[in-house]
Design brief:
single chain; mainly alpha; two-stranded antiparallel sheet
Length: about 140
Amino acid sequence: MEESKIDYAGVLASLEAKRAQIDAAIAAIREVAGMVPESPRAAQQQLGLSDSRPAVAERGYEGMSVVAAAEAYLRVAAKPQTAPEIARALKRGGVTSSAQTTFSATVYNRLHKAAQRGTKIIKIGKAFGLPEWSRKEVLRTVS
């Protein structure tokens, strides 16, 4: 019997996306309850304002469309990102393109079209985000 291989990169990407969602839910509940985070570092993490880039598993987005990979990355990043930021993350995650334009331009064009539909991606100023992010949360993480 052949042993099945585990896609650790995919598992990590999924867990990181879920962690970002849980952190956002905790932050929202703390805000509604008027609870202050226990430390400035905790507040920074709840707002998605980390000093480091969001973790991207190597090859974690391989085989995904640009829009699907960007949506997964935004869930991990937990804050709006520009097309160049998303393009760099997708490249690190294994997304490739054969388009004639730069990869950043390709990402922008595909996300802009998706944002016009407004179902998976939205435009937030010069950045892109997820439709379920409330306007209040978005403004707080951008500022």
